[in-house]
Design the sequence.
């Protein structure tokens, strides 16, 4: 057995390495992404009781649940976007499992997002972050901390007005920079999409989906607890459900953080 | 003169809530003709096609010429009150609890004499009256003689109120306040004197016009309610179920597609989830509470209104999946009606023609306005009508469907 692995489990047991849950609870109360009503919709999370130690099943309690592939804290596979449709291994059942454990860099944009719900992360901000914390290593997750997950009221979390949703995200140049210059493995956000709420009006529309998935990279959204992560050094564990030809899936996202 | 209804006092919580008893509900099949008409708010009697005689009570053959060629025809109900009596004793549980009870004998202008329940404002024998067929708490058609001319606070007559479902001083749940129809229903209920209106709001982050304005109305309480969410439905039912007197389930999902025009089943499933399963969830949540309060004083639980569609009767192929979901809801509403009947709680089904909303944008007029639909619902409650067909399209399709359902199916196939 590898001494590294032995050391890992021993530090997990001792608490020297902490496990942080970056997942929102799956519940009917958590809002789902909403498209214009004439379009197809992602199912919200719904749960129906099968039995509860009652006449439907005397000694056991269990439920059926339903949701979309993109409900709650979820993973976006490259096939989710049209730009990634023809890539190899682009769905949840075929993506290399080695990609599902990796380092995370966390850029704190909470102040900007508090000041401007439509805040767009740009290259200059990433470079300023690197000046302090070092260059983003290849094959790392870039997590955009906005503290959006602290908006526990769904109205504030969704943040709609008559022009649509207002939530932060990256701008197109930042996405290209992360892919081309830093070879990130994916982009993670706390809001309902990896793209900003008004990303329909960016060029190209939804640049994070368009470029990330077009380059075979992944997305994580509806993350929480990013404020508990260090800027660098955390390791993300984020395997989606092995859905055949799945475009994504709800998942449990864990971060390992050293002392 | 009828005394105006006053807001009921709070009930004494140490006293047992009275259980519902029903008036005699047995009817022969032929007598159900009266019920069928009363369900639509019509007074019909059998007419002989051979000798022309109008007859009452209903029977298998003409009482004059023995012809079996009888047809139910609408009657004006105009007549003269011949005699009045006041019931002071009854072994029937329903009437025993409501004594004294006035009955009258009325000679209708169509030369038929009937025994009818009597509105309190009907004067002594000799007065002109108007006989109406109404549904009683058993859901059966009965006759009531009303004063010939409108009187003050006529709807507040205690005996008449045993047949109606008046929202005055009652507490109502309207399941969807996001639509123009839902908002119009709220305003109509307020005009009708409803005391308290819970208004359901799903996905509160979506900015729908008008819903915030409801918040400012003193009678209105916005509550989270998404009929696709079993947990949310049961939570709200647990919270307010014991106080709801009238349920108006107007939540619906409508996507205008047939089979070929939309790939996949997601839109159709969403329709079923709200229009059919939503009704089922709500009925499981609120049904027991309403049944327990069917005789709970002046503001008892009294009615359940379902917003269906005329498309429930016969599929309208351009809106084929919506039609199917409403047909499913109609079938379930019949089950609900049967299950609510022991409590005397009326289930009212509303079958509008195309509503003038965004999902019927490309449908030619005539379309039912939100206000007209709301008025029809409130009137059905006030008059105790069970099946309501608001709008010209609904009326016309109903007539065609009653005449020949197969012909209507073929006509709707284009």
Sequence:
């Amino acid at each position: 057995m590898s001494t590294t692995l032995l050391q890992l489990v021993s530090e997990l047991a001792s608490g020297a390495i902490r496990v942080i849950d970056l997942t929102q609870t799956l519940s009917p109360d958590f809002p789902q992404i909403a498209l214009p009503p004439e379009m197809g919709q992602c199912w919200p999370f719904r749960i129906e009781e099968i039995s509860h130690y009652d006449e439907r099943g005397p000694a056991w309690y269990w439920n059926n649940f339903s949701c979309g592939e993109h409900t709650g804290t979820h993973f976006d596979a490259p096939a989710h976007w049209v730009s990634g449709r023809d890539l190899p291994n682009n769905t949840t059942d075929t993506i290399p499992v080695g990609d599902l454990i990796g380092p995370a860099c966390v850029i704190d944009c909470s102040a900007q997002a508090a000041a401007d719900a439509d805040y767009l992360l740009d290259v200059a901000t990433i470079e300023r972050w690197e000046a302090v914390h070092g260059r983003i290593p290849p094959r790392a997750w870039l997590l955009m901390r906005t503290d959006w997950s602290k908006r526990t009221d769904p109205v504030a979390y969704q943040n709609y007005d008559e022009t649509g949703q207002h939530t932060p995200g990256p701008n197109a140049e930042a996405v290209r920079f992360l892919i081309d210059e830093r070879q990130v493995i994916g982009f993670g956000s706390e809001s309902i999409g990896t793209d900003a709420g008004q990303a329909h009006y960016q060029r190209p529309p939804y640049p994070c989906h368009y470029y990330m998935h077009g380059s075979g990279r992944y997305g994580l959204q509806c993350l929480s607890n990013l404020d508990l992560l260090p800027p660098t050094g955390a390791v993300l564990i984020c395997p989606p459900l092995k859905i055949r030809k799945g475009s994504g899936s709800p998942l449990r996202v864990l971060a390992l953080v050293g002392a | 003169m009828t005394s105006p209804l006053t807001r009921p006092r709070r009930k004494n919580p140490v006293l047992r809530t009275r259980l519902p008893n029903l008036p005699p509900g047995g009817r022969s099949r032929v007598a159900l003709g009266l019920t069928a008409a009363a369900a639509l708010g019509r007074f019909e009697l059998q007419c002989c096609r051979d000798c022309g005689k109008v007859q009452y009570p209903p029977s298998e053959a003409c009482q004059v010429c023995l012809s079996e060629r009888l047809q139910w025809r609408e009657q004006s109900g105009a007549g003269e009150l011949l005699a009045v009596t006041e019931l002071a004793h009854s072994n029937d549980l329903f009437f025993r609890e409501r004594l004294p009870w006035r009955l009258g004998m009325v000679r209708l202008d169509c030369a038929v004499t009937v025994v009818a329940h009597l509105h309190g404002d009907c004067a002594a024998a000799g007065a002109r009256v108007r006989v109406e067929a109404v549904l009683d708490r058993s859901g059966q058609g009965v006759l009531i003689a009303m004063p010939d001319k409108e009187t003050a606070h006529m709807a507040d007559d205690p005996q008449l109120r045993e047949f109606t479902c008046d929202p005055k001083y009652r507490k109502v749940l309207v399941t969807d306040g996001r639509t123009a129809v839902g908002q119009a229903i709220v305003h109509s209920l307020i005009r009708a004197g409803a005391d308290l209106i819970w208004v359901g709001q799903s996905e509160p982050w979506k900015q729908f016009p008008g819903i915030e304005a409801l918040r400012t109305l003193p009678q209105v309480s916005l509550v989270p309610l998404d009929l696709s969410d079993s947990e949310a439905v049961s939570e709200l039912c647990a919270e307010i179920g014991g106080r709801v007197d009238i349920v108006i389930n107007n939540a619906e999902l409508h996507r205008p597609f047939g089979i070929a025009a939309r790939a996949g089943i997601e839109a159709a499933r969403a329709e079923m989830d709200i229009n059919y399963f939503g009704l089922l969830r709500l009925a499981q949540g609120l049904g027991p509470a309403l049944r327990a309060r069917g005789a709970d004083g002046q503001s008892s639980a009294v009615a359940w209104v379902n917003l269906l569609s005329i498309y429930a009767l016969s599929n309208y192929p351009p809106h084929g999946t919506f039609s199917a979901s409403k047909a499913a809801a109609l079938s379930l509403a019949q089950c609900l009606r049967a299950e609510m009947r022991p409590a005397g709680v009326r289930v009212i089904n509303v079958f509008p023609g195309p509503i003038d909303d965004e999902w019927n944008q490309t449908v030619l007029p005539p379309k039912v306005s939100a206000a007209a639909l709301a008025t029809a619902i409130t009137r059905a409650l006030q008059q105790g009508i069970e099946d309501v067909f608001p709008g010209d399209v609904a009326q016309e399709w109903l007539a065609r469907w009653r005449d020949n359902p197969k012909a209507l199916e073929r006509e709707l196939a284009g």
Q: What stands out?
A: The mean pLDDT of chain A is 97.
